[in-house]
Amino acid sequence: MFLDSIIALLNFGERYDYNIHKSIENYRAQVNFPMKKAYFSLTAIKNSSVHARSDLFTPTQLLNYHSHSNGTERKSYLSPQNEEWINNCGRITRAVMQDLLVNLYRASDKEQKLFNNEFIKASVTIDIKRDEVLSRMKLVTGKLNGKIDDFGFIDLTKSSEPNGQHNAIYLVDTPETVMKLKHYLNEVSIKHRSLTDNAPEFLLFTVLPTVEWIENVFDKKSFSKKSMTEGLEIYKRYKDILPPLFSAQMGS
């Protein structure tokens, strides 16, 4: 019945068009079957779904699965008005809303499978790039001749590379390196949503693998205790004035 009603409205109703009707008053006067701009919003579906479960609520339950507190549940959802709605005419409407919430706005099996496949592919890509960096990475200490980049990697000439490891990349074990890596992680935590919108490929193929190997280095306590302690102190002291990252990728 609900679907038949919606189909009838769509088939026979006429939408408001400013170029034709000029005003809401003219629209209502001229059209035999005026239509509302929207029947109900996603917020209405969510709220109705919550209302539908309110009669099952008890303040003594250990777990609260709602997005509001028990006090809000008692004050706003278990009110006399809501009780009347539940007892008189609300159950059918709420059953429909609950059905919409569970079925219509839930991803289909095909969509879930596609998402899972894409998620697995992305995870594998990130893992491969992370492992590639970690397999080539060597942590070095002491004074070495070479240019240190923004991450703390040093560009050694072939003559200075130990044991002829030409494919290795060398991360300098210093407080400054710890500070740089902590700053990178913090910038990603702040800007990952903007990167998702503006530079998704950069996020997937560069940022996330970098975050993975940085976290791995910290988790394994690869840096010396002195570098970690001093690096964290330097980062806390200067984090508010460190230069922002990813400005070019976000178009700012």
Automatic annotation (TrEMBL):
Entry protein name: Uncharacterized protein
Organism: marine sediment metagenome
